[in-house]
Amino acid sequence: MNSDLYYWPRALDWIFRAEGGDSDDPSDRGGATRFGISLRYLKTKGSIGDIDGDGDVDAEDIRALTKEQAARFYKQDFWNKCRCGELPPALAIIVFDQAVNTGVRTTARMLQAHVKVRMDGIIGPQTIKAVTRAFRANPSWFIASYLGERAHYYHVITLANSSLAKFTKGWFNRLFELHEYVLEIIS
Questions:
Q1: Cα distance between residue 96 and residue 137, in whole Å
Q2: pTM for the complete prediction?
Q3: Within 13 Å, how many C-alpha atoms sit on residue 179's CB side?
Q4: Which of 92, 154, 168, 185 is the most buried (most CB within 10 A)?
């Protein structure tokens, strides 16, 4: 199934809701953020990240970022890199959300560990096949157990870096809300 046709817009709607508007929390390593697109990420885009065209990538570019530009970045660097369009729809949204929140390689490795395939950090045909098989066997269990692993991940990184503790409540709320959102899709 190709989730791009119907589920990409739903995934994008979810991510804009989950990520919110503008923020610039000194504890957030991403720096200034708009629509969930951080300055740290935008700097990796080189000249494409120079939204305002002034020759550098800085907080002014974050402020100039449009929702449409953010959507293009999300599609190219998160949805497509995680091959979400090839995953079962509810899972595609979960994987996309995690890629935005924790990064593509972390997401791929967690997904691979969950289905017990080689953890190379790249979602390829073997991962997609194993994930799809496991998901179809019991979608509700797969979703709950995978989101549980994400909760554990947040716990572990918070233990390793106590400055992240202030984000824990928001991360857990996000997981609960995401769980409800995708359950509507599979029911």
A1: 21
A2: 0.92
A3: 18
A4: 92
For the chain, what are the domain ranges?
A: 21-80, 87-187
* Structure-token pair, residue 165: 């503790």
CATH of domain 87-187: 1.20.141.10
